[in-house]
Amino acid sequence: LAFTQGSHWGFAFALALAVIGFACALRIKVKKRANVGTGEVAAADAAARAAAKASAANVATGDGSSPRDAAKSGARA
Predict the structure, then answer these.
(1) What does the alpha-carbon distance between residue 54 and residue 74 come to, in Å, rounded to a whole number?
(2) What is the DSSP string of 2-69?
(3) pLDDT, tens digit (0-9, with 9 covering 90-100), for 21-77
(4) Same domain for 40 and 76?
(5) Domain residues for 15?
(6) Model pTM?
(7) Considering only CA atoms, which of 48, 57, 59 is closest in space to residue 76?
(8) Of 59, 56, 54, nearest to 71 (Cα)?
(9) C-alpha 2 chain-centroid distance
C-alpha cells in the first residue's frame, strides 16, 4: 500500500513539474534574427558595404553628390 501511494505522489509531482515547465516555456520570448541559411545575412552585409562605399565616395568628391548622381549626369567619378 505504501509503495502504491508513493508511486501515486511521485507521478503527481512529476506531472506538476511538467505543467510548470510548460507554462514557463510559453512565456519565453524569442528574438527574431536573420536566417543564415537563406542568405539574408550576406545580403545585409553587401548592402552595408555598398552604403559605406557610397558614403566614402561622397566624402572624396566633396560636393555632396553621390556616384549615382554623377552617373545620371554623365560625369565620371
Answers:
(1) 17
(2) HHHHHHHHHHHHHHHHHHHHHHHHHH--------GGGTHHHHHHHHHHHHHHHHHHHHHH-SS--HHH
(3) 999 999 988 777 655 555 556 667 777 788 777 776 665 555 555 556 555 555 554
(4) yes
(5) 1-30
(6) 0.38
(7) 57
(8) 54
(9) 53
Residues 43, 68, single domain; the answer is yes
Show the cell assigned to 23: 507554462
Distances from the Cα of 6 to the Cα of 2, 19, 20, 24, 72, angstroms: 6, 20, 21, 27, 83
What is the grid cell recorded at 72? 545620371
> How is residue 59 written as a grid cell?
566624402
Which amino acid, residue 3?
Answer: F
The answer to whether residues 66 and 57 touch, using CB atoms and an 8 Å cutoff, is yes
Question: Which set of grid coordinates corresponds to residue 70?
Answer: 554623377
Residues 22 and 50 in one domain: no
Distance of CA 42 to the CA centre of its chain: 13
